[in-house]
Design brief:
Length: 306
């Protein structure tokens, strides 16, 4: 029987692990399908306090994990396939293993959204990517498209200019949603071109198992065009990883967990931290902060138990 199990090993989960481990609770961290979370998919993090020169995302995660391990946190690979929160101890299944725990911290984050095209699914990993920082290198000397108009799109597009000859930002409106500073950087970069008011109708060529172009439709004129590109990056945001808890934990209309009084969910003893409950801030530092809160609340919950 565990005192604390933490689902997720991103910034939120690891901060919760540091706090719970320092409180001698010997937390178990289940690392999840996207171990290390969003920070492992990024490069330089310039806004995490304490690093005036910036820090590489994967390095920051590695440091947090080391810190948690040194205080006694345990780590397990794999992801939770079933969770029963209907009674305590809570029961989790990770593959064939059954884990019982007195408290649970859900820090399972949010995953990249897809457009939902059949060709996109078939070409994922064959020229279609949701992670510029992971796959940008493969597009050296090539032309690519990035879909979306938010900060994720902006970051991806800027990163890709390191490798690609031209980066085409395809956005369904004629105005970006990205923050002003990112917009300025995009507009200043000569390698970045914009295809406004357009949606991707299809990605070619699923049969050849490689990306050769995109079929675009202008939403204003309805005109359809073909644009030759060698890669497509989907940068349209994220979806919370909460499917496992549907019907058990309260969620909002987008599936983000609802918490009250800090990180408490509707089930006593279950706490939530990080992007899985945050559709507003979604920053490394806010995730870390909420991980700390969740661990402190789990500790208090255990202390108050008979
Ligand atoms: P956002 O929801 O902010 O943006 C998503 C973008 O994708 C929007 O432009 C949206 O279009 C477009 N989009 C969504 N669905 C589709 C679709 N099906 N087809 C075509 N286009 C679509 O998500 P982000 O991930 O960019 O950002 C989330 C939060 O994280 C924000 O608060 C952001 O500021 C923050 N963030 C900050 C970063 C930084 O500071 N460096 C980096 C990344 C994220 P439309 O505009 O028309 O809705």
């Amino acid at each position: 029987m565990r005192n604390v199990v933490i689902i997720g090993s991103g910034c939120a989960g690891l901060t919760a692990a540091i706090y719970a481990a320092r409180a001698n609770l010997k937390p178990l961290v289940i690392r999840g399908a996207e171990a290390g979370g969003q920070l492992t998919l990024t490069t330089l993090v310039e806004n995490f306090p304490g690093f005036p020169q910036g820090v590489q995302g994967p390095e920051l995660i590695e440091l947090m994990q080391k810190q948690a391990s040194e205080f006694g946190a345990e780590f397990r690979e794999g992801h939770v396939t079933r969770a029963d929160l209907s009674q305590r101890p809570f029961v989790l299944e990770v593959g064939k293993e059954r884990i019982e725990t007195r408290t649970l911290i859900v820090a399972s984050g949010a995953s990249a959204k897809l457009l939902g095209l059949e060709s996109e699914r078939r070409l994922l990993g064959h020229g279609v990517s949701t992670c510029a920082t992971c796959d940008g290198y493969f597009f050296r000397g090539k032309e690519v498209a990035v879909v979306g108009g938010g900060d994720t799109t902006a970051e991806d597009a800027l990163f890709l200019t390191r490798y690609a000859t031209q980066v085409n930002v395809v956005h369904r409106r004629d105005q970006l949603r990205a923050s002003k500073i990112m917009q300025d950087r995009l507009f200043r970069n000569e390698k970045i071109k914009f295809i406004w008011n357009s949606v991707v109708e299809d990605i070619l060529d699923a049969q050849k198992r490689e990306v050769t172009g995109i079929k675009l439709r202008n939403v204003k004129t309805r005109e359809e065009t073909l644009k030759a590109v060698d890669g497509v990056f989907i940068g349209i945001g994220h979806e919370p990883n909460t499917g496992l808890f549907r019907g058990q934990l309260e969620m909002d209309d987008l599936g983000y967990l609802i918490t009250r009084e800090g990180s408490k969910t509707n089930v006593p003893g279950v706490f939530a931290a990080g992007d899985v409950k945050d559709r507003v801030y979604r920053q490394a530092i806010t995730a870390a902060g909420s991980g700390c809160m969740a661990a402190m609340e789990a500790e208090r919950f255990l202390e108050a138990e008979p």
